[in-house]
Every structure is written in C-alpha cells, then in structure tokens.
Amino acid sequence: MQRHGAAVAVTAERDVEDRLQRALHENIVLKLQKNDLEEKLKKLQTQFRRLVADWRRAQGGSGFSRGSTILRPCCAPSPWAMEPSARPHSAAEADSRGAPAAPSLGGLLPPLNPNQSSQTACGASSTTAKTWKRQESPPGTTGVAAGASEAELAACKAALAHAQLELQQLRSSALAAIQARATTPLALKNVTTMPADASAAILEASKQEAAQLRSQLQKIREELNASVLAQQQLRVQSNQAMQGMQQQLETQYRASIDTLTREKQELILKVRLAEAEKQAKSSVEASSPDPMEMATLHGEVHRKVSEVALLNSHLQYAQGQVETLKGECNRLIEELKEAHAAHADTKRALFTLEHEAASLRTQCRSMTEVELALQRKTEECSNTEQELLKLAGSLQTCQRETEAAVRLEFQSRLTEVQEMRDTAERERREVERRLLSSQHDLAELRRRLENTQGDLQLYHGEVAKLEKEKSAISAQIALAGHTAAAVAAAGADLTDEDVHRALAVAAIKKRGSRTQKREAEMGLGGAGTVDGDAAAAAGAAPAKEARDALDLFEALAWDGDWEQGQMREALATAAMDLELAQTRCQQMAEQVEQSREMLRKVSDERDTLLEESIALRGRVMHVQTIFAKQQLQAYRAAATASGLGTEGLISFSIRGLQSQEAAMCRSLGIANLKAPVSFFFTLDGLADYEAMMGPTLRALDDVVDVRFQYEGLAKDAVTLATIEETVFCFQLHCAAGETSRLVAMAELPGAALLNAREVPVEDTLPLIDGEGQTVGSILVEFCCARLVLPILLGAPLSDPRAGATTFTLSAQEIKSAMVALRTVCYLRIQVFRAEGLAGSLEGGTAPQPYVFYTATSPLGALNCVRDTVVHPSSRIFTTDPVFDVVPVDHRVIVDPALIRFVAFGVVSFVLFDERATNVQANIGVVEVALRPLLNSPHAIIRVTERLHPQGTLSVGLSWVSGV
C-alpha cells in the first residue's frame, strides 16, 4: 500500500508538472497576444493621428482658390494642429508640399501607404476582424479569471472595431467629398464663396469627432489596464488558494498514510502473535496434552480465529477506506492540477527567479573571489603596515644613531678646529709681536742711521774747514821763517791724507774745547816773550796732536763701519723674519680657510642630516597620524558594534585537545587514551583577576568546549600595555579526589590578542609538561570585543542606537540654527596647555609632546575640520607643555550639513611623544563635543578634560564671524 501511495504521489506530481508546463505555455501565448494587441493599438493610434493630419490638410486645401489665394478660417486652430509633426506621413504629402502650384492635386487626401489601393481600409478591417476571431478562442483551463479577461478583451475589441469603422466612414466621406469637388470644378467657386459659418461648423464637427475618438481610446486604455490589473489580482488570489489547498491536501495525505501505516503494523503484530500461538499449540499437540488443557486450547484457538476474522474484516474495511481516500486523493489531485493550471504566472516567475538566483550565485561567486582578493590585499596591507612600522622603528634607531654619530663627529671636529684656531691665533699674535718688535728695531736703526749720516756730513764740513785752516797756518809758518829742520821734524812722517785726517780730528776736538782754549789763551796772554826753543816745542806739539787726532779718526771710522754692518745684518735678519712671518701667516690663513671649508662641509652635512631628520620625523608623524585616525575609526566601530552589553571583553574558548599517546598517558598515569580520567583546565592571566577554572572532563576523547571570559575591563582600567605584557597561561590539571596535580601548560602572549579585535582568531598552542616535553596541543579561539574604546578613552562615544531622537534635528531647529549662525565664517580651535602627562615609555623620562586632532560625526556628515598637528611653543622635554598661542581657523559654510555636523560631531585630541619608538603609542586621548556651539555665534567652549591614563588637556573652541 505504501508503494502504491508513493506511485500515486509521483504520478500526481508529474501531472501537476505537466499542467504547470501547459499553463506556462498558455500564459506565454496570452502575453504574446497581449503584445500583439498593444502593437495594433499603437498602429491604430498612429493611423488616427495621420487621419486627423490628413483631414486638417484637406480642410486647409479647401481654402485654396485657382488664383492661389488663401482663405483663413475665423475659428481657432485645432489642438491636433499644434502637434510638432513637420515630417510628411506619405510620399503624396511630400509631393503636395514640394509643388504647391498644382491646384488640381492639392486638395486630394493621400492614402496612409503609397502602395495601398483605395480598398486598404476595408482590407485592414477584415484582417483585424480575423485577428479578433482568431484571438477569441482562449484556452479552456484558464478558469473564472480567464473568462473575465475574455469578456473585457471582447469589449475592447468591439470598441476598437467601432473606432475603426468610424475612421473608415470618415475617410470614405472625405474621399467622396474630394472626388465630388474634382468632378465638378464649379464647386470650387461655390466653396470659395462659402460663408465662414459653414467652415467653422465643419472644423467644430471635426474637433468633436477627434475628441470622441480620443475619449474612446482613453477608455480602451483604461479598460485594458483595469483588465490586466484584475487578472493579476485573480492570479495572485488563485495562487494563494492553490497553495493553501496544496498544503491542506498534503497534510491530509500524510495523516492518512500515517494512520494506514500504524494499522498495518498492528495487524502484522497480531498475525505474528497468531503464528506464535499456532506453533505453541502444535508443540503442545505433539506431546501428551491434558484433555482439559486441550479443551482450553481449542477455546483459545476458536477465540483467536474469531479475532482473526474480525481483524480481516477490519483490514477489508481499512482497505475500503484506503480506496476511498485514494479516490478522494485523485479528486484532490485533479483539483490541484486545475489549480496549478491557474499558477502559470507564478511558475514563470519562479523560473525567472531561479534564473536570477543562478545569476546571483554567479555574482556571489565572483564577489567571493573579490572578497578573497580583498582579504589578500588586506593581509598585504597589514604586512606592509607591519613592515612600515619596523621600517619606522629602524629609521628612528638609525636616526638616533646617526644623530649621535654626527654629534660626536661634529664635536670632535669642532674641538680640533677650535684647537687649530687657538694655535693659529697664538702663532699670529706671536708673529705680530715679533713683527712689531722688528718694526721698532728698524725704526731705531733708521734713526741711528740718520744720526750717523748727519754726523758724517758734519765731519766732512769740519774737514773742509781744517784744510782751510791748515793752508792758512802753512802760510803763516812760511811767513814767520821757521827753519827747515823744524819743518822737517814737524812734518817728516805726515802725508796729505794724514794731515786732512788730523785736521778733521783736530777740528772735532777743537769744536769741543774751543772755549777752554780761548780761556787758556786769555790766561797765557800776559806772559813774557817766547824764545827760539819755545818755537821748536810749539812745532812738535801740533804734530803729536795730529797723530792723536788721526788715531781717533780711524777709531771713529772703524766703529761707524762696524756698527753700520751690524745694523745692516740686523735689518736683513728682520726682513727675513718678516718674510718668514708673512709666509707663516699665509700658511696659517690657508689652514684657517681649509678649516673653514671643512667646518662649512660639516655644517652642510649637519643641515642635510637635520633635514633628513625633519623629513623622517614628518613621515613618522604622518604614520602616527594615520594610526591615530585608524585608532579613532576602530574606537567608533567598536562603539557602534551590536550584540554586547559590556564595555571591554576578552574571551577564550578551548575547542579541541590533541594528545601524544605515550607522553600524555605517562603524564596522566593511564594505560591508553580511552581510559577514564578526570582532568580540567585553568587560565591564569591578568594580575587584577583571579585564576579561572573550567569544568571537569572525564575522558581524553570527550568533546572539549571550555570557555573563559574577562569582563568589565573598562571598569578595572586595564591598559593596552598591561595586555601586551601579560602572558595568558592555560594549565591542564589531573583531578585525584579532592586534590589535583599540574600535568602540562600552554602559553599565549598578550600581543596576539591585539590581532583579534572584534574578530575571533584560532591558534594551536603546544602543551608542555614539567620535563619540557610536548605532550599534546590545544585549539584555542580568542577574541577581544569593544576593548580599545573603553581602555584608551575611558568613556564610550555617543551611540546611535540610544534613540532616533538623539541623532535627528527638526527642520525648524536646523533653520533657527542657520539663522543664528549666518555670520559665521570660521571655526577656531586652540590648544592651550597640558598638565601632569605620563612619562615617556623609553626609560620613564619626560616626553616631548605634541597634539594631533581631528573631527568626526556618527552620521558620516561632511567634515569641516581638517587634520591638524599642534606643537608646543618651545619643543622641550616636559610633562606640562604650553602650546602655540596662535589658534587655527577652519573655514566653514553655514548649511544644514554643518548644523548636523556640529550637533552630533566631536573633536578628538590625541597626544603623541616625538621620541616614542612605537608610532602607535600615545600618551593621552580626549574628545570634546561641538553641540554647545549651536547656541550662539558668540558661544565659546573652554574646557579642561582629563586624559587617559593621566594628565589634563585645556582646549578652546569658538566661532569667528565675518563682517
């Protein structure tokens, strides 16, 4: 019976599928017919427009006279004449426009097709009628909705046929009028004299007919649209009814099948019981039974036989019910087939959706490939960021080493240059001193030379005087009559040169003792007369005096030559010393110039290194800015994340345990891995939290799912540095009664947690026993959720989920704020000072701080605040910096976007240390809301906010209004 029921179900499904396919085909045919009807309606509208244009042209042609005079009607032009149809609809119209001089052909109404005869309208109407007749046979399985649509389509067809007949009558009447005018040329004269009332009546009649045709076409369109809408509604209703019937039939069919299955099982059990009793009866008969027992058994057999007969009757009744249900099912299947016939559009839509689903799957596969490529690119970007961080660290190390080496080299070179400069200065001063002394000596020598030259000239003058005196004395001696002997004795050993010298010496001596001689002569003037012996003694005395004077002159001459030679030698030596000093000065000047050149090169190298250092600091600052923005984005992403009610959560989950059989069995003291043993895991990590213990497991092959969580990290003020320095230790303990012993342990560094922000990460950790051997491994899944925001900021940002009214402004509020802030041109942001900052991470020394700030809005509005870096007024190492006095003005344009940005935006200030090797590390973060600035253009925000982990920051925000 089950097989028969399954076969009936399969047959019913096949019939349903066949009927659905047929209904689909019929639906396609109906849609094609509908498209044909729409195309024919469009053609009919085009023909109607052409007919109206032709009619207007024929009416206009009736106003032409033979003399080509135009009679303009007095009435207003037809609305159909206002259509911008400047293109002729046929070749005849083009000919009539191109040749207006042919009055006999100007009034003819051209046909719609130049190859069409005058019977075109009749042929078109007959063709249309045939088409309507061909389309009037709808499929018989469309049901009530199909009958309604047939009636509506029939009404539409009748309306269209009526409109076509009216158009045909209008065209035939127009042709008859034109032919009558052509056959009777005298009628043209009567037309020219036609009164204006007749032409106005004709135009009015044509307008009315056109309006009637327009209204009929509009009605036809509305009826078609209404029929299509009604058909769609009926299809939807029939689909819903069919689905409900199908579900009901399936429920009934399943219930009946279950009932029959239960009855069949009961009958099988009863038959088995009867067979068992029969076997027992036969076994009893084979032995020597008791007559009483036999009678009892006979009674039981009769009772069982009657029960079997009753069961057979029940079975027949059940079979009859099954047949009845089968007939009912057949009837319901037939009804279901009929319902499926009305489900053609739904099936078609289903096929279309399946096709779209297949295309979407293809797109999803391509999107998966794109996501994989994006993930690879993201990994590459993260690797690049890590390399950039390493490069930044190496660059900072290289910068520090280079600066230290440059400073040392510069100091050594500067010391050498200073020593050389001091030595050169000392030598220069010594040379200058010696040169001055030489100059003094030369001046003294020149003075003495001038004195000697003056004395020499004086000597020459005195010699000349002595010669004159000698000649005078010689003349006196000759006149006095001295004897020859006296003369010979007086001048035997003297020559003329000796005489001259003696006279010169005498003149010199006389010059000094003239006064004494005069006094002596005056004292001797009163003596007695001089005799001849006295005259001889007087002649011998001058000779002796002359010799003494000559010796004195030679001594004086020798002393002057020797002194002059000594002076010349000293002068030559001084000149040589001066030349040597000049050479030495020149050499020292060259050395000084070389030292200056070297110093200039060192200065250039120092400037180059300083510029490179500044560029590296700028790059590091840029990297810090990028990481700061990434951190702020991570903060806001964590703030807007859903699904968590706590701020700051670290979770660990041990998903699996893999054991090395020999080592693990030895450590636990069991025979094999399937032996029962009690063990549990513990987690020891953060210092402020106690060790956590997991549930007890009873065997190594059990399913391992142990979870540990650290909650409320924001409340306990756990920092990133604490997490990075913490090592999370997973310990495997073996339970033995009320005690336990440590078997193995695995460690996870805290730095690995920073790679699992908001996304779970799995890792395999080895288990190490007390002897340092690996006994197995555990699969750990860990995740950090909403961790960075409470740790670094100390308070969550504004949450858009707090309420829709929190992040919305009414139109009146926006308008009033725009009116109040209409004179605002700039947003001024100023950082004043910071106090009590944390020390530098390198050795705990004072930091060299600077501030980076940016602005964001949870609504993603346009940002009017550009990213800015503010340095202290003096870049010194301090924990209480005072920043630049000059504020920074940011240009704003007052519009609704600015109002929304100021209403919900915040400015984030991040303090960095220029000496920090870790460019991601900061020494403080704070956020200031812009909402108070909406009150007035004169509103000022001057706050001192608390930084994390320590310190305060004073900032100011205000508007700057224009003139």
Class by alpha and beta content: alpha+beta
Can you summarize the main beta sheet?
9 strands, antiparallel
Silhouette: elongated
- Let me know the number of strands: 17
Q: What's the overall average pLDDT, rounded?
A: 72
Distance between the termini: 97 Å
Instruction: List unreliable stretches of 5+ residues.
Output: 62-146, 184-195, 482-493, 526-532, 789-806
In terms of DSSP E residues, the strand content is: 5-15%
Count the DSSP helices. Answer: 17
Question: What portion of residues is helical?
Answer: 55-70%
Global Rg? 67 Å
- For the record, the count of structural domains works out to 4
How would you characterize the overall build of this protein?
With 963 residues, the protein is α+β, with helices and mostly antiparallel strands. It has 4 domains: 37-240, no CATH class; 352-483 and 492-515 and 538-616, no CATH class; 646-786, Immunoglobulin-like; 799-961, Immunoglobulin-like. 62% of the residues lie in helices and 14% in strands. The protein has 17 helices and 17 strands. The protein has helices at 2-61, 91-98, 120-135, 143-183, 186-192, 196-286, 291-341, 344-480, 484-491, 496-524, 532-640, 661-668, 713-716, 720-725, 788-793, 811-820, 896-904; strands at 649-659, 676-684, 692-693, 697-699, 706-711, 727-736, 739-749, 761-769, 774-785, 824-835, 849-856, 868-870, 888-891, 906-913, 924-929, 940-946, 952-961. The strands form 3 sheets. Strands 1, 2, 3, 4, 5, 6, 7, 8 and 9 form a 9-stranded antiparallel beta sheet that branches. Helix 1 (2-61) runs antiparallel to helix 6 (196-286) and helix 8 (344-480) packs across helix 10. The two termini are 97 Å apart. Mean pLDDT is 72; it is low at 62-146, 184-195, 482-493, 526-532 and 789-806. Keywords: Coiled coil. GO terms for molecular function: structural constituent of chromatin. Residues 98-119 have a biased composition (Low complexity). Residues 81-146 are annotated as: Disordered. Residues 120-130 have a biased composition (Polar residues).
